[in-house]
Amino acid sequence: MRFTGLVRRLGGAWLLMAGVPIMASAYELDTHQQLSQAAFDASGLASTLQSAYGIFPKDTFRGRFPLFMWERNTPVNWITKGARDEDWLTRPLNHFYDPYHDAPLGIAAKAPDWALEDVGDLAGQDYSYKDARDAFYRGLTARDPATHERELGDTFYALGHIIHLIQDMAQPQHTRNDSHPNFIPVTKSWMETYIERLAGRPDFNTLFELNVDPDSVPNVTRARDLWVTGTGAQMTGSGMAEFSNANFVSAGTNFTALQPFATADRFPSPVLDLNNVSTSSFVDVCKDGAPAPGGALGYLTFYGNGFNDPVTGGRLDNPRMTTYSLFDQYLAASGRPPTFALNCFNLDKAADILLPRAVSYSAALLQYFFRGRLEIAPPARDVYGLAAFQPGNTGKFTKLRFKVRNATLNEQAGPGQMTAVVRYRTPIDPSVSLIDTPLADISGPRFAVSQPLDPITPTSSFQELVFDFTQSPVPTNSADLFLTVVFKGPLGQEDAAVMVGGKDLYEPDPLDRANATDYDCFQGVPYHVADSTAYPPYRRPDQIQRDVNGDGVRDLDGPWVEHSLYIKTFDRNSSAPTLPEDGFDFKVAELLAGQYVRFMLLQDQELYRVALREAIQEVPTGEGFPNHSFAVVLNGILNEVFPGPAGETVRRVTLSAIDRGVPFFHKIALLNSDPTSCLSQMHLLTPDLERVEGCLPVADCRPVE
Amino acid sequence: MLSWQHLTAAVLNLTVTGATIFSLAVGASAAPAFYSGAEIRGWVVDAETKQPLEGVHVVAQWRLNTGLIHGEHVTRLQILETVTDARGEYYLPPWGPKPRPFLSVLEWGFDPILTFFKPGYRPDGRDNYGPPPDNEGEMSLRFSVWHGKTVALEPFRGTAKDWAIHLSGLQTAIGWGHETDGAVRRVNDYWKHMPRMVLAVFEQCRLVPRSLSYRVRDLNAWHVTEAELRALIKEGGTAP
Questions:
Q1: Cα–Cα distance between A310 and A308 in angstroms, integer?
Q2: What is the ipTM, given to two decimal places?
Q3: Closest Cβ–Cβ partner in B11, B71, B210 for A182
Q4: By the CB < 8 Å criterion, does A16 face chain B?
């Protein structure tokens, strides 16, 4: 049985060999490059990649081993490279699809099957939509940076291959299975050669108005719809293959009879309309500069047709669908009776319609591929991650909490697998803390990957989720963080779609609360009031050390002690939490003068608010405030890397300062009084602040005694 | 383990390739054994003022059709470059004879394609248009219909994005970092034959705003540095 099948297929191959002329490309390489670049622009992919994936348009990726092991390219350059390489070796055999007969060319694969592999894997096809999607998921969820970038590079490369297959459908010979062997002058594709010549010009984009309006990019619910939505009598004309098949003739499938309602062999449309006729003028010039014949040579007689724009539904007219003339496609006298042929005037008009749509349909494929959007929002507690500070800044975020929803337009998701990934960089010297030395040299991107949540169904409403990074934690000593959440599962009509959401987080943020009431400032002089021998409680008349200026009024306060200190970040749009049961993030039982506490957090705002609740008591007097609550606004910490105008690496960093021996970004300090007059001295005072441990999360704290 | 589908595909590939080579050998049999290029002299003017334009980079590329299964006009048989003088005149000397590479031919329209570039003007291109001579396939001496003619360049007045797209199109036109064709691919070295044009384009690409800079390629695509390019220009360029 198998042998029979093999013989039959080999037989087909030999037939193919005998008919080598049936092989052909569609548009050539420079044409595909120009169309693909324009498609990248029209798709808006540059901004999508940046907002959802943290990928800048000038970021470069290696390709998959071993073919492209030394090569790095930007996303657009991988796409254009893929679009060029789809014509490699025998791949073009699969670049035909006749939607009317639902037929490939010979025994090759149908172009949409080859492009999508949605009806089964095909031998020799490694760059289909399915392959791109698999590479995309592997890349996004890879911990190994090399795998990450190679798989993403391969994703873009495969997308280039795929949109090539759409662009080929904008060449009617490829949708009317009109073979056009290359090296035989009478049958080679004049259209492809002609367009490639023009693509070799710098102004190709302008010649065919390829800078298409994003509104002309079609929306589809299935990738296949970009090729075909129906076959035979069910053709709707929406797919690119249907559109070019039904509305254009090709060199080998032109009309053969000058009579009303004539059609080409094998195809019911387009239909010849003898009333839609025009002639060339002696001033007519093709886009390549070729003038129309005239005078004694006669004029060209054109027949046109009209049809609907597959995207807008508006009416399109092509007054030069075909030529009925003594002249063949080379505009040379053929010595035969008038016949239907295509010349550069027909090709110009066809390309005017087809090439911009090749761009918009290619852009639609790119948009469709990246359409699955998840939206990330802060959790109810406002911070994504909390971690204890460890000496040397060696702590780790092992859990991240945030909200996720399906933000894909008009498509519902089914149960699938969701993974969170944090991209970060670390100091090249691991002994260096980015709190102490924010400008320390940092590594290339690294990735922390959570355990997948499975099964989970992203809905249009936010769900708060906790992702476990225990096996691949995010170091607190890291920079340039970008959070991605990746879902793979059913979306709309796609069974294994990839949905992605991204959020540029601020860097790990050491939040400090310091009790600096061991000093008090008076008239520009700091006094170490924690020294109870030098500054005993103010008691007139014999303990008056705290009356510095001798006016009979105490000038120096403190120290103070803080009891049951609670700290919590909160949403700027909500009221500050005040009660312990409000779910504070951090607690310390007691904070003495000269001490500080620190914990690490991850948040996503340029400015965020922090609430504190505590009981404070002045040591010398025993007086205090049992419910001391307040809130402050702090700035997010930046230490990010991005490409500059010339592709150079730019780094934006929040600098730290040192206060009493402690490097910090921002510190919420308890002070005795207005320290303004002592500011120049306060940070140099001794002793250094002493760090004490707190409880994170609060539930882990023992009851306050 | 190799499945029969893979075996079939492999046999098919070999068969098709062999058949194609046979076809090409037959199809190219009438082509000459050697190609030469006739001199090209022309003038470039401002399309609005009609005044001569000095300093216009002019590159001529004779592009072979080398495709096995399909048409590929990637490989350049010859590349020449020059710059217009104060009278807007350029001159590209005759060349050849050069042996025709196996299984490849020059074709009307690609023999050569002329590219014109001067910052501040829309880049433009010209090639042999209209019906080819009857014996075009057998022509050993290739000529440009633009010899002795004047080309008018339009002053550029578009947006930064328009300019980036023009530069991108120009890069495609001169094969910027493209790979050679054939089964084994490598990045071409065409920059060696038109270093002045490449440097001029590169200098413009550096001025493209950051938000559009992805649209153009840098010299890395050609694995060449600006210093190497300048050194080559100083030496007078590489003989084609």
A1: 6
A2: 0.87
A3: B71
A4: yes
